[in-house]
Write a structure and sequence with these properties.
The structure holds two protein chains of two kinds. Chain A is mainly β. Chain A has no helices and six strands. Chain A has a six-stranded antiparallel β-barrel with strand order 1-2-3-4-5-6. The two termini of chain A are 18 Å apart. Chain B is an alpha/beta fold. In chain B, the strands form three sheets. In chain B, strands 1-12-11-10-13-14 form a six-stranded mixed β-sheet, sandwiched between helices. A four-stranded parallel β-sheet of chain B has the order 3-2-4-5, sandwiched between helices. The longest helix of chain B is centred in the last third of the chain and has 29 residues. The chains are: A mainly beta, B alpha/beta. The structure holds iron/sulfur cluster. The site of iron/sulfur cluster (SF4) has 6 residues of chain B, from loops.
Chain lengths: 74, 491
């Protein structure tokens, strides 16, 4: 499990930040993205993948979360 | 000699790599690249933030340098103890020229060096007692200080001292904040991790101390984050923001105080100049306090105007008008500077190798003078820095990450720029080669370079370096003809 931060920019696109490794990247795919169910498997632009426990969509961004690494790029 | 083609630049990289043994070659090749503006993601072309190769000359610093030297050091009303042996603090003392107002030794302490001066017995028996004693002495000798930070040098982590416990206890006794920072030099691959650790220490020990406290805010409160007031940079930036109608609540950390840091969560917008060293705390404030942050660039009139407008876009019409007024007011001044220097500098080429934000931020300022940046690189950047750089640099220009002494010399020798912007360690090598160098870490004892006032100084300095007639009269010592030596002997 890793601590990550998810941001949402003005255009509504999500980006991913892993403070431990200072890795910033765009989230290209998010499994669930609705008000009731949000999260699941996320894919990064660099090819990496993480899993966020599906939950209600956070009211405010950025938000720090715990995520499981499924497949790290590099 | 600018404008190498892509193939030529690639060939150059290959040639330079030729001297390395196979393994080193493979590793270094990943850190050198030819810029391609079509690449969206820098990691496809350049690797960064990796451990330097043993055996090469790297120009990086350590985590302690990143924390004490960069982030914490400039906070002027705190005393920063270089905890460990005397050298780390003494040899880096006041080298960064973070200007501040105040009476040194009375209410400000920026250029002083405080150290616990570890001796053998402290390594053997631990230094916690010494630290506690030192804090007591500081309190007696410098009663006007507003707080203390304990900047760990390598041995602290190695011998396992508990500086947190000492700090907590002593802070109660003297009733001032004491911040232990675990920035031992061996952590991470460069000073970059030191920045991160320092940011985390600010977050954990300083930032929330005035949450809920009374503060008369205005809708125009901003803070300047990541400006270290080198040669007065933050002052030259601050006046522009104030002129356009904003209120600058805090300066991080050049000429800054701990009170300003504690008040930063009250601002409406964080203005981030050095992204590399302070994005961490900006992200934290965005999440915890909902304060947006904005990267800006105050090098050269083009970028300044762009940045002022971008900043104003976060506020109402009053500020937007203010920004336009500021731009219009300085425009004739800037035109005069450009008219004076551009004819002399037009078409000249520059290669940069610095840290933090400069390898990309100053490009615009050079372009305002008609100069071209043909190579750039960072000491300790991460992927996101290169993402931002690729767009700023011309196509087919050279990018080098954590460049070694040898590579940089070789690149400069082949590409023959008219100016190199780098650090003091590189300065004399290139000047002996007959290539002028401006030391771009602390502006070669000049500055400020930020803001409109700074640009005038920047232009003058670059002109002074390049147009100096001495460079063509220089023969590097290693190119002196042996005959002349013998002739001298004979004479
Ligand atoms: S690496 Fe360690 S010993 Fe060297 S300057 Fe940094 S803190 Fe001091």
């Amino acid at each position: 499990m890793a601590n990550i931060m998810v941001r949402k920019d003005a255009a509504g696109a999500y980006s991913f930040y892993l403070p431990k490794r200072d890795l910033e990247d765009a989230i290209v795919k998010m499994e669930f993205d609705s008000a009731e169910k949000w999260g699941g498997e996320i894919r990064l632009n660099n090819g990496g993948a993480y899993y966020i426990e599906p939950q209600a969509a956070p009211a405010r961004f950025p938000i720090s979360l715990r995520a499981k690494r499924l497949d790290a790029a590099e | 000699m600018s404008a190498l083609t892509r193939e030529e630049t690639e060939a150059l990289i290959q040639e330079v790599l030729e001297v390395y043994p196979e393994k080193a070659k493979k590793d270094r090749a990943k850190h050198l690249a030819v810029n391609d503006q079509t690449v969206e993601q820098s990691k496809k072309c350049i690797t960064s933030n990796r451990k330097s190769l043993p055996g090469v000359m790297t120009i990086r610093g350590c985590a302690y340098a990143g924390s004490k030297g960069v982030v914490w050091g400039p906070i002027k009303d705190m005393i920063h103890i270089s905890h460990g042996p005397v050298g780390c603090g003494q040899y880096s003392r006041a080298g960064r020229r973070n200007y501040y107002v105040g009476v040194t030794g009375v209410n400000t302490f920026g250029t002083m060096n405080f150290t616990s001066d570890f001796q053998e017995k402290d390594i053997v028996f631990g230094g916690d007692k010494k630290l506690a004693k030192l804090i007591g002495e500081i309190e007696t000798l410098f009663p006007l200080h507003k707080g203390i930070s304990v900047q760990s040098e390598c041995p602290i982590g190695l011998i396992g001292d508990d500086i947190e416990a000492v700090s907590k206890k002593a802070a109660k006794e003297i009733e001032k904040p004491i911040v232990p920072v675990r920035c031992e030099g061996f952590r991470g691959v460069s000073q970059s991790l030191g920045h991160h650790i320092a940011n985390d220490a600010v977050r954990d020990w300083v930032l929330d101390k005035r949450d809920g406290a009374n503060f008369e805010s205005t809708p125009y409160d901003v803070s300047i984050i990541g400006d270290y007031n080198i040669g007065g940079d933050a002052w030259a930036s601050r006046i522009l923001l104030e002129e356009m109608g904003l209120r600058v609540v805090a300066q991080w950390s050049g000429d800054g105080t701990i009170a300003e840091m504690e008040l930063t969560p009250k601002v409406k917008l964080n203005l981030l100049h050095c992204y590399r060293s302070m994005n961490y705390i900006s992200r934290h404030m965005e999440e915890k306090y909902g304060i947006p942050w904005l990267e800006y660039n105050f090098f050269g009139p083009t970028k300044i105007a762009e940045s002022l407008r971008a900043i104003a876009a976060h506020f109402d019409d009053k500020i937007k008008e203010g920004a336009e007024k500021v731009i219009a007011k300085y425009q004739p001044m800037m035109q005069a500077v450009i008219d004076k220097y551009k004819p002399r500098l037009q078409g000249k080429t520059v290669m940069l190798y610095v840290g933090g934000l400069r390898p990309r931020h100053v490009i615009g300022a050079y372009e305002d003078l008609g100069m071209e940046v043909i190579g750039t690189g960072y000491e300790f950047a991460h992927g996101d820095d290169y993402d931002r750089t690729i767009k700023e640099m011309g196509n087919a220009t050279l990018l080098y990450d954590d460049v070694t002494g040898f590579e940089l010399e070789e690149f400069v020798r082949r590409m023959k720029p008219d100016l190199v912007g780098s650090g003091i360690k590189e300065k004399y090598v290139f000047q002996k080669m007959g290539i002028p160098l401006r030391q771009m870490h602390s502006w070669d004892y000049s500055g400020p370079y930020h803001g409109y006032d700074g640009f005038a100084i920047f232009a003058r300095d670059m002109d002074m370096a390049i147009s100096n007639p001495c460079w063509s009269k220089q023969t590097p010592p290693w190119q002196k003809q042996p005959e002349t030596e013998e002739l001298k002997k004979a004479a």
